[in-house]
Amino acid sequence: MKVTDYFEKSPDQTHISFEVLPPLKGGSMQDIFDTLDPLMEFKPPFIDVTYHREEYIYNKRESGYYEKIAIRKRPGTVGICASIMHRYGVDAVPHLICGGFSVEETENALIDLNFLGINNVLALRGDARQFEDKFIPEPNGHKYAVDLVKQINNMNHSVYLDANIEKASPTEFCIGVAGYPEKHFESPNLDTDIQFTLDKVKAGASYIVTQMFYDNENFFRYVDACRAAGITVPIVPGLKPITRKYQLNSIPRKFFINMPEALVKEMMNADEKHVKTIGEEWCIQQSKELKARGVPCIHFYTMGDAKTTYKIASSL
């Protein structure tokens, strides 16, 4: 079932969904099950599984030179999606990124997903590699998420890279894309960023999931600006609770978002043992307000912390 079908079937309901990370290489599927088992009580209509491109490490050789080696720290997105659907009977949404894929490899990945009965994808550009100051696409790969959306949408209309294919079967992917209530850090301003999002919707995106945020007013202003720009697809807020004091610095540094002054002051003045409770309560209040405003779904970035996510979801 497509993500947007759930929203259309229950227009007055606020669903709860979750995002999980593949375990580090050497981990097991049980790590994912341990996170999701208690959360299935909330009947999520879909579960996102992130994708992580290869990174480079440098090993020093006996000669003194360094050898550049590509590694995948968190493989397994497609297999995890298949396991989730088999175990829980819910739809899995794999993240598909531009980085690390040529257009041919992207098409083959989509064909595999289609054969597995996975008909939802979240199309993202992806981040730059560590030690690279900007995103560098693969040779013959997509530079922007909008181009990835176009390729997926083409396959939905039986258009494959090989123009000589006869009687090609159309895929039925429901395409999600990312939104940024405080703008993507590479965009010059929010208006321009929303225009880029509109371009992705025009290219075939059916819904938007936002970057995490900690001030709901930023989300509400973002939705209003999107609607004014002509974006009519569902916009799903993404939330992640703060559980450690150091995250007041690390989250803004990594995700280029702001922290509300009231939240920062409360956490800075608290003992470390009370910080998690403060973060949970802040996220609970965010969730309740978002639900009261009628959002179609609240998407929680679990980061493997099932206990905290469970506590917040229970409040709804």
Short description:
This protein has 316 residues and is α/β, with parallel strands linked by helices. It has helices spanning 3-9, 29-36, 77-88, 103-115, 145-156, 190-203, 216-228, 247-255, 261-268, 272-292, 306-314; strands at residues 15-20, 46-49, 55-60, 66-71, 91-97, 120-124, 174-179, 207-212, 235-239, 297-301. Helix 5 links the parallel strand 6 and strand 7 (174-179).
Notes on the structure:
There is one protein chain. This protein has 316 residues and is of the alpha/beta class. It has 11 helices and 10 strands. The chain has helices at 3-9, 29-36, 77-88, 103-115, 145-156, 190-203, 216-228, 247-255, 261-268, 272-292, 306-314; strands at 15-20, 46-49, 55-60, 66-71, 91-97, 120-124, 174-179, 207-212, 235-239, 297-301. The strands form 2 sheets. Strands 1-2-5-6-7-8-9-10 form an 8-stranded parallel β-barrel, surrounded by 6 helices. Strands 3-4 form a two-stranded antiparallel ribbon. Helix 4 crosses helix 5 and helix 5 runs parallel beside helix 6 (190-203). It is globular.
Topology record:
Blueprint: H1 3-9, E1 15-20, H2 29-36, E2 46-49, E3 55-60, E4 66-71, H3 77-88, E5 91-97, H4 103-115, E6 120-124, H5 145-156, E7 174-179, H6 190-203, E8 207-212, H7 216-228, E9 235-239, H8 247-255, H9 261-268, H10 272-292, E10 297-301, H11 306-314
Parallel strand pairs: 1-2, 1-10, 2-5, 5-6, 6-7, 7-8, 8-9, 9-10
Antiparallel strand pairs: 3-4
> Number of helical runs?
11
Strand order in the largest sheet: 1-2-5-6-7-8-9-10
State which percent range the strand residues make up: 15-25%
> Which radius of gyration do the C-alpha atoms yield?
20 Å
Please outline the major beta sheet. 8 strands, parallel, barrel
How would you classify the helix and strand content by structural class? alpha/beta
The residue ranges in which pLDDT falls below 50 over 5 or more consecutive positions are none
Number of strands: 10
Helix content: 25-40%
The 3D shape can be described as globular
Order of helices and strands: HEHEEEHEHEHEHEHEHHHEH
Intertermini distance = 24 Å
Mean pLDDT: 93
